[in-house]
Amino acid sequence: MPFPPPSSPEAPIHTLITAFFAAIHTQDWPTLRTLIVPTGHAILSRGLNELNEGTDLHSVPLPALIDHLEGSKPFEEPIHDVKIMVDRDLACVWAPFEIRVDGVKTATGTNVFTCLKREGVWRVSAVVDRNAGVVEE
To answer: pTM value?
Structure first.
């Protein structure tokens, strides 16, 4: 993900999202917990096809999502073509991704993050994770 200029409003959001994924990739769960709003939620969308049929949605608190990730096999989730929008203390991040396990692509999709700035600190307050599964190229 290319770095925005350091003085731009997007720079601290870029830093937050980079740290969020770095913590997941290194399985640094204590650090990941410091990057979220503890009352935040995630919506996980699985199995969506082109006709919006067969969607399986799950809503989980962000701390419970981290608990789930703690028990998972290590993986990487490189993001690309990221778009960040900021309005004062609110930011939104659009982040298409691939999931790789042992270097093999196992899924693609898009994450949408909502981030809030409270007491001078940006944190992830919500995530929508739309996982399309394995997509043939």
So the answer is: 0.87
Please classify residue 60 by burial: count the beta carbons closer than 10 Å to its beta carbon, then call 0-12 exposed, 13-18 middle and 19+ buried.
middle
Structural domains for the chain: 11-133 (3.10.450.50)
50-95 pLDDT, tens digit per residue, is 555 556 788 999 999 999 999 888 889 999 999 999 999 999 999 9
| Helix residue ranges, H only, the chain | 11-25, 29-34, 62-70
Residues 6+ apart with CB under 8 A from 57: 43, 44, 45, 46
